[in-house]
């Protein structure tokens, strides 16, 4: 529990939590600046339906404690976080603490049917975990169907007291969450798409901290404004919580210095525009002008995509405000110049800037020797239409699907982690996930005639502490596009990337093994590949999936089964007593 002072405060907070969870939450947040590392923070999540109005459309949406976006959680490295979730809605729900490694404790990871059965309506579950060896910006979100479109919020992990940042301390820190707003019910949107086989309807707006802003109908009053002082440095904690879109971001007449990605420090680099994929986080330093020429500047986000389908091709705006302004007719300052929606070159140039800090305090422990080499194709595919005498609305009368190595993930009937812990695999999972494409083809060239996928609940078993090199290869089936892949329970090092088909002879000599960026979510380039390495030092069952929720719904996911090590501290913890039942 850490220092005695922290233990006392943790005990006091626990008592307050039992008596009045909302009061305890306020106490914890107010006391945070005085807390020592190793404290325990108690939060209550009441998942409830709340009426919210955007774009002049009012609808009832799931929220946490009536907030949209949800509450900001703040801890320090080494702290324990205890979140009691009460589900008061008619949907099942679970919560993922995106990027938290959950060492030996997959029970707190959150993806439904992978590490837990979902929390059913009227039921509760306590997520109890310690943040070990991590500091920076992460986030939390629902991990059931498309509920994360409304159920998300920032998770800020401050450094241990006295450590500070490896860059000058900013004047102020501000979380900015990029999101999507649908006028329609998103559960109806995805359910209809899965039934018809078509691509789902797209969002109606992008948002800054839940607000669409003045580029959309009826939304000038719903504009996010970041109030700043001249000549100061602000740290923006950026989070892409959008459902299905990678986003460009920029601020007119300002530059941004990237200092962290996915809660890992990077060698600082400065850009005028950045791109961020769903699931990714990024800390950037914004130094304001000492003598600004204008009282306000526009911030903007717009999509990056190469999809052949429809997408939300709109731009959301917010305001960087040096002084309160009352502009005539709510005139928006000029927007920053963002790249075109399909500018893969701009994305590639930005992505190649990332390097781990790799200092004595924050080394890049990239595996040099590799025990397991794997090649995964990631992309779209199809399923035959199951309806007699009918055609579906996907390609050529089929249904859209997605897969990894042509295996489209089939949702199990119970949680994989519990099946593994109790060694009850029969009828739940198979440990035969293909570690190379079962039918090799010209992945980024002309697609094969047969694009049907296979279905199964398959995992890749790994020996504890095995070093893994995974090449993620994009395909051109149903059109080449990028895929943001997120690995639960781990960070990985991005040692190489390129366009076209991966060459196992000529590409590895060009790997960066000195200071590769460390991430938990990486976008597989459009018609390209990315190579990552990680050490399988966290036992459990860990999901890896595309963070476009439409592709996740179509089956673009798989799981790693990492076996226990021989020592007591290398084995999974036992499940909590309140683990939900399926």
UniProtKB/TrEMBL annotation:
Which Pfam families does this one have? Cu-oxidase, Cu-oxidase_2, Cu-oxidase_3
One record GO biological process: lignin catabolic process
* Cellular component per GO, a single term: apoplast
**Record keyword Heme present:** no
The top EC class, named as a word, is oxidoreductase
Q: What is its main location?
A: secreted
Residue ranges of every copy of the Plastocyanin-like domain listed in the record: 46-160, 173-323, 433-564
Report the CDD domains cross-referenced here: CuRO_1_LCC_plant, CuRO_2_LCC_plant, CuRO_3_LCC_plant
- Give the signal sequence positions: 1-38
Its needed co-factors are: Cu cation
Q: Which UniProt keywords apply?
A: Apoplast, Copper, Lignin degradation, Metal-binding, Oxidoreductase, Repeat, Secreted, Signal
Give the E.C. number(s): 1.10.3.2
UniProt GO MF annotations: copper ion binding; hydroquinone:oxygen oxidoreductase activity; oxidoreductase activity
Provide the cofactor note recorded for this chain's UniProt entry. Binds 4 Cu cations per monomer.
Q: Where in the cell is it found?
A: Secreted, Extracellular space, Apoplast
Describe the reaction catalysed, as an equation: 4 hydroquinone + O2 = 4 benzosemiquinone + 2 H2O
Q: Which NCBIfam families match?
A: laccase (TIGR03389)
- Describe the function of this protein: Lignin degradation and detoxification of lignin-derived products.
Q: What protein is this chain from?
A: Laccase
Say which species the protein is native to. Answer: Zea mays (Maize)
Lineage summary: Eukaryota, Viridiplantae, Streptophyta, Embryophyta, Tracheophyta
